[in-house]
Amino acid sequence: MExxxxxxxxxxxxxxxxxxxEQAFKTWFKPIVPVSLKDNIxxxxxxxxxxxxxxxxxxxxxxxxxxxxxxxDSGKLEYKIIMDSSDNSYTMVLPGSSRGNTKNPIGRAPxxxxxxxxxxxxxxxxxxxxxxxxxxxxxxxxxNFVEGECNRVAxxxxxxVAKNPGKTVFNPLLIYSGTGLGKTHLCHAIGNxxxxxxxxxxxxxxxxxxxxxxxATASKNNNQNDFxxxxxMIDVIIIDDIQFLAKKPSxxxxxxxxxxxxxQNNKQLVxxxxxxxxxxxxxxxxxxxxxxxxxxxxxxMPDADTRTAILRNKLYNNGIVxxxxxxxxxxxxxxxxxxxxxxxxxxLVAQSSLNKKAVTIDLAQNIIERFIRxxxxxxxxxxxxxMVCEYFSISPEQMALNTRKHQVVQARQIAMYxxxxxxxxxxxxxxxxxxxxxxxxxxxxxxxxxxxxxTDKQFKMMLADIEKKMAI
Length: 472
Ligand code: ADP
Ligand code: MG
Prior knowledge:
By secondary structure, the protein is an alpha/beta fold. The chain has helices at about 5-20, 20-30, 50-70, 150-165, 185-195, 210-220, 225-230, 250-265, 285-290, 305-315, 325-335, 340-355, 360-375, 380-390, 395-400, 405-420, 425-435, 440-455, 455-470; strands spanning about 35-40, 40-45, 75-80, 90-95, 175, 205, 235-240, 270-275, 295-300. The radius of gyration is 28 Å and the shape is globular.
């Protein structure tokens, strides 16, 4: 019978409908078009590669049992994926196909042609699809990102990526650091440089939180495919603060697919995180393992010389002249992060010009005290080590020694625990600063201390005492 496939698919839909939620049914099964039925193989047409992957990942069991039920044991399902208007479709057999040995059509997808109807908030209405708002801040460039020991690898890696997006081994480029150390600046610098060198490339900077919200909206409005198509059109995607995807499995899923697609098509991915990927909790391992494919590098707090250079750079760019002693005073005394360094500088300029006061060390000191006190407490590992050592009457050098002496071990474990709790440093960086230990040791220390806090009242009081001394 000629139209048998339509009948059969209708039967399948009945089974599927009974076994899926209404919204999912509408999104993932309604758009499927049955194409043919031959040799007990039902061929269905799906709108995109992403659609196929999603089905395979989330509904393969359901499809398998449905086909068995409707076509019997020998029944098979084949997909036809619409690639574009020309006859570029390909087929893939299911079930029985594993993704590893299937033909991968991704490289052939002329994605541009799919884009006409894409609805996306970034697209400037009335313009062709490649004219997207890159969301780049032009003020953040490589020129004004001062290089130092603290950021050399990340900055150079970023420059390489900008010169040859998608063509270096740095894909993805993953940059991690505590807050205020230049991740976002570097992201924009990379994006701006690529736009400068390759104006035709589609570059998009997006905060992970924004990505998350867009996906939620797309899911609510049933626009998942538009969302994915939009992201698949990008040549360079820069996702800032990926830690926001923690505990969001559905967003991680879709990002995983987009990541794969872009990576396979030699598109560039740049990702930032507030911690080492290994320390990112609640992100799917398969996504974390992808992050390791390229270059993972961190940004450290700049040393005093680099802090001086950053201050000079900011002043120069704003046409302001400060006495050298003030610059070196600021560079020596603001040790939290670059954002605070900048904040103190701006306050100082504002104060002196508003109140017509001369810029003096006194004024600088005054502002630092107020600024640092008023800012969210961002405590450094170094500060914590000093306070803990003081409490136990040992020196930081003793604490770093490789000894089993109870008091030293205890001090070190407490310093690690408090650093994890109060600083934004990664486990790795905490370990390095507490006697060159690895991140597993820090993890173990944190666990030991928190276990003991639950069972040992005296220990708990001691810790509260240390915390009080630290004035956190
Ligand atoms: P993060 O994203 O890591 O929290 P940002 O990129 O927002 O940090 O940086 C905070 C501020 O510090 C920004 O204004 C940025 O321009 C400045 N900054 C950080 N590192 C540098 C640097 N190496 N040179 C110049 N400015 C820097
Ligand atoms: Mg940032």
